[in-house]
Specification:
There is one protein chain. By secondary structure, the protein is mainly alpha-helical. The N and C termini lie far apart (about 55 Å). It has twelve helices and two strands; from the N terminus they run ααααββαααααααα. It has a two-stranded antiparallel sheet. The chain is globular, with a radius of gyration of 19 Å.
């Protein structure tokens, strides 16, 4: 792997470890805790798809008439990732995007999907993030997370979009969280079998194959431009900080629930 990739990896390692060892995982004890986690996390799952499609729009020709655009190598990389993320298979072999699979998991365990559904419905009608956040009463941490993603999308800098896609999203699910979910699944298989499957697919597809593809994509886009690499590093650092804040929001919400339950 290139020297520049290693430089970014070294610069974000502390933040990455902070995410992997975040206290949010240790507070998840049952399905009710998991529901709160999912109500925060679903915003990251959704805007990941928006980031993905932005890259496809920027790196390939998605309009008619068609013309060759950019590098065929880069087109291949992003198109292969899109196929896996936008049309994977669920437990029954049906084609689903990872976002739709996540909604299925939320519905199965009884997590409230009304907020994210209201957000998406309002955004469809208004094309305005602030209006959608307000209508859905989206938590501040989720707003900040999505806003940063869309600031990067609106920068029109494909190398920054690729950087936060590559380093800000992949390989961030700790084994501790997988173990917690597996333990809950033993007691409530009918409630979280889809979520367990989602995590397994994320680790298998996103954390392995797609991470290699996205590393190549970022390397191709930054090339030998030192300024691009420096901007990519800063954007990645900021994206990881936003992830930590998102997890802080989920943790605080769970903590409030536990305090209220203990006092009632």
């Amino acid at each position: 792997m290139s020297e520049q990739i290693e430089k970014i990896r070294n610069s974000i390692e502390t933040l990455r470890q902070e995410i992997i060892n975040h206290k949010v995982y240790s507070i998840i004890k049952d399905v009710d805790d998991l529901k709160i986690f999912m109500q925060f996390h679903v915003y990251a799952v959704w805007d990941f798809m928006s980031l993905l499609k932005t890259l496809q729009n920027n790196l390939t020709c998605t309009t008619v008439p068609w013309f060759p655009k950019g590098s065929a190598e880069t087109r291949h990389l992003i198109n292969e990732i899109v196929v896996g993320e936008e049309s994977d298979i669920d437990l029954d072999g049906n084609r689903k995007s990872h976002f739709e699979l996540y909604l299925d998991a939320m519905n199965q365990c009884g997590a409230d999907t009304s907020q994210i559904e209201k957000f998406i419905a309002t955004l469809k009608n208004t094309s305005n993030l602030d209006s959608a956040f307000s209508a859905a009463e989206t938590p501040k941490e989720a707003r900040d997370f999505v806003n940063f993603t869309f600031e990067t999308i609106n920068s029109n800098k494909d190398y920054l979009q690729s950087a936060i896609f590559t380093f800000g999203r992949e390989d961030l699910i700790p084994s501790m969280f997988v173990s917690i979910v597996n333990d809950i699944h033993k007691n409530f298989p009918e409630s979280i079998s889809i979520f367990k499957y989602y995590l397994e697919r994320h680790i298998e597809v996103d954390g392995d194959h797609h991470s290699h593809l996205s590393l190549k994509m970022t390397t191709n886009l930054c090339g030998t431009n030192q300024q691009f690499w420096e901007e990519a590093e800063q954007a990645t650092i900021e994206s990881l900080k936003k992830r930590i804040e998102l997890w802080d929001g989920a943790y605080n919400q769970m903590l409030i629930k536990k305090i209220v339950n203990n006092n009632s």
